[in-house]
Amino acid sequence: GAVVSQHPSWVICKSGTSVKIECRSLDFQATTMFWYRQFPKQSLMLMATSNEGSKATYEQGVEKDKFLINHASLTLSTLTVTSAHPEDSSFYICSARLAEPLDTQYFGPGTRLTVL
Amino acid sequence: QKEVEQNSGPLSVPEGAIASLNCTYSDRGSQSFFWYRQYSGKSPELIMSIYSNGDKEDGRFTAQLNKASQYVSLLIRDSQPSDSATYLCAVNRGSNYKLTFGKGTLLTVNP
């Protein structure tokens, strides 16, 4: 149980285009999902908290207009990187919060974004 | 003081040995504690969670929590080369459900 999927697993795009990444909780409902970014050999960096039916909460320094988050259902959150640039190339990972029986986060497999 | 601290390693142990990974945290209000394993190029995978003082065992893994001393540890018995990975300690500090991660300890198990 507690499986989280992401799609796509990798994507290559041209500078200036937008890319949408989906995060799904497959066997449980997640009112809260999280989006992280990880650069090579660095720690996970929390970008934002996604709550079903409400606006996402972004961490300090993360541009909300660049990283659009939509949590339209209890099993799906999407991250759209708008007008992507090479510096946005990174490993994007989502996690979903399973509230019961004990509050735990499960991670998706990640999406590797390369912007040319 | 960093919120969650781990030795970055690398920690190198021979196959079959016990690997001991340690983590300290600064917020006494922390509620729950997690160990995630992350292979190079992959996302974190939950290994253990612990919520109350004492030991919790799951197969070859034992998590230990001491809230008074603000540390949590992970023991891996009979270490295998497949255990070679970065181990992330994570702490949930309360109602916003966010996890605070340590920088991770790189474990290498030598055949």
Question: What's the layout of helices and strands?
Answer:
The complex is a heterodimer of chains A (116) and B (111).
Chain A: E1 4-7, E2 10-13, E3 19-25, E4 32-38, E5 45-51, E6 57-58, E7 67-73, E8 76-81, E9 90-98, E10 104-107, E11 111-115
Parallel strand pairs in A: 2-11
Antiparallel strand pairs in A: 1-3, 3-8, 4-5, 4-9, 5-6, 7-8, 9-10, 9-11
Chain B: E1 4-6, E2 11-14, E3 19-25, E4 32-38, E5 45-50, E6 54-58, E7 61-66, E8 71-76, E9 85-92, E10 99-101, E11 105-110
Annotation keywords:
heterodimer, A: mainly beta, B: 111 residues, mainly beta, six-stranded mixed beta sheet, five-stranded antiparallel beta sheet, 0% helix
Q: Whole-number average pLDDT of chain B?
A: 94
Distance between the termini of chain B: 37 Å
Q: Outline the low-pLDDT stretches of chain A.
A: none
Q: Which two protein chains have the largest interface (Cβ within 8 Å of the partner's Cβ), and how many residues from each?
A: A-B, 19 and 22 residues
The geometry of chain A reads as globular
The share of residues in helices of chain A is under 10%
Q: Give the strand tally of chain A.
A: 11
Give a count of the beta strands of chain B, DSSP E runs of length 2 or more: 11
Structural commentary:
The complex is a heterodimer of chains A (116) and B (111). Chain A is mainly beta and 116 residues long. In chain A, the strands form two sheets. In chain A, strands 2, 4, 5, 6, 9, 10 and 11 form a seven-stranded mixed β-sheet that branches. Chain B has 111 residues and is an all-beta fold. The radius of gyration of chain B is 13 Å and the shape is globular. The model of chain B has no long low-confidence stretch (mean pLDDT 94). At the A-B interface, β9 and β10 of A face β4, β5 and β9 of B.
In brief:
Chain A has 116 residues and is mainly beta.
